[in-house]
Amino acid sequence: MSIRPGASLSVTIPDGIRAAAQRTPTKTALVEGDRALTYAQLIERIDRVSNLAVYLGLEHGDRAMVLLPNRLEYVELVLGLASAGVSAVTVGPASSAADIAFILDDCGARVLFVAPELVGRVEESGGGGIEKMIIVGPDYEALLAESSAQMCSVPTDAEDIFMITYTSGSTGAPKGVMLSHRARVNSFHAMSSAHGCYSPDDRSLATTPLFHGAGFMMAVAPLFFGGFCEILPRFDIQHLMGSIERVRANCIYMVPSHFSALFSTDSGRRYDTSSLKALISGTAPLAQAMKERIVDYFGPSRLFERYGSTEASIVSTLRPEDQLRKLKCVGQAFPMTQIRVLDSEGNDVPTGTPGELYSSSPLMFSGYWNRPGLAEQSRRGDWITAGDIAMLDEEGYLYLVDRKSDMIISGGENIYPREVEETLLAHPAVAECGVVGLPHDYWGEAVTAYVVLRENANASPDDLLRHAALTLARFKLPKAIHIVGDLPRNSMGKVLRRTLRQGNWPAVR
């Protein structure tokens, strides 16, 4: 079953970019390294891709896999396929051959667009049912040159699935999240309203992987409104900060691990970030101590913290003026979005009481590919949940307590890892922290912390335990603290608790 929320904007993403190209055809739209496309050139290449898709025998509703690192061709491929009614299945370039094989089998893609350096991994995967593999390089350019530059004649609709992005599989086998034009166009308008960005005069950076729903959204939103975006091919904190200064960027998206890298690397240089209107953080909650460092570094009027999921899109945002007023908070409901906090019976809980967070909006996904009925497991009518525990205050501000699935039960007590992490992160020597429950014969689960220290900082597990004991109840204190060199993360910088739960993450100090 597909989810079809009610009234929403009936426009496709290429429609918006085509309108921008009519207004300012010679304006630079997209840059990556020393390569650039004007709006007219971008639309021409989108049209050539869509006609190439038809030539390759792809029909409305088919899937084609895109396996590329961040590069200029990513946007034209996804949107060109969408203009032919074809869903782009976006896969991370770090995916293993086994992951690629699983996704190919699951999505049924018949055509694959792949970077030259990733061809070997595709061959190792067995190739699934791929009928045509197109290497994005000279062969791809030759095919585009032969393809028509006329607008594709295939009818498309706002509810068409333009992109299928697979989750990291933290709760089981990866699931293909189906994203429609409707969902993303509404997200673009909500983002523009909430963050004050994305006018034709604004300049943005695409800082995170484009195969992720959020990464692609942050790259394409500026183009939808006629602005400018530069794609960063890979993450390097000094290059990112230098790009803000060079481009005079107005809007960027950074994840918590980006900030950790910035503050743990003392380059001795302060970058000029005065052009920023909106510094948007997402994928995981920021620790309060980290928020304070960000506000101190970038200034008090720039940081927006967002909470959401691939399925629900953006659910809430904490505005700059609230960062130091509403502690450990992820803000109020995002534009076009309603939120509720419910008990196990589906009743709204009182203010200040934890419950399961649900949201409803036209920004939501359309269901899981090839998993009929799975989306229903996380729905109550038009409301969906990611399984997060949260509470609302009397002003309607949202506070994340933790993921329901991450809750630790130790000695019969419920313990939320985020509270323990916040406490440890407040220690001046701690740069990063991940807390999980590990099996224990007596306690059931033992609170276990993995801690990365700041560069040139020193602290022992006992030091950190004494610090935690100043504020945490005794039953919440870690039974073990491991000092490690880094934490396992996915491609968007989110800590992989499932890896930590295996109990063998290496301690190197």
Describe this structure in words.
The protein is an alpha/beta fold and 509 residues long. The protein has 2 domains: 13-392, Rossmann fold (3-Layer(aba) Sandwich); 407-500, 2-Layer Sandwich (GMP Synthetase, Chain A, domain 3), CATH 3.30.300.30. 29% of the residues lie in helices and 25% in strands. It is built from 14 helices and 27 strands. The chain has a 7-stranded mixed sheet, with helices on both faces. A 5-stranded mixed sheet has the order 11-12-13-14-15, sandwiched between helices. The protein has a 4-stranded mixed sheet with strand order 2-1-10-9, sandwiched between helices. Helix 8 links the parallel strand 9 and strand 10 (228-231). Helix 1 crosses helix 2, helix 2 crosses helix 6 (138-146) and helix 4 crosses helix 5. It is globular and about 70 Å long. The termini are far apart.
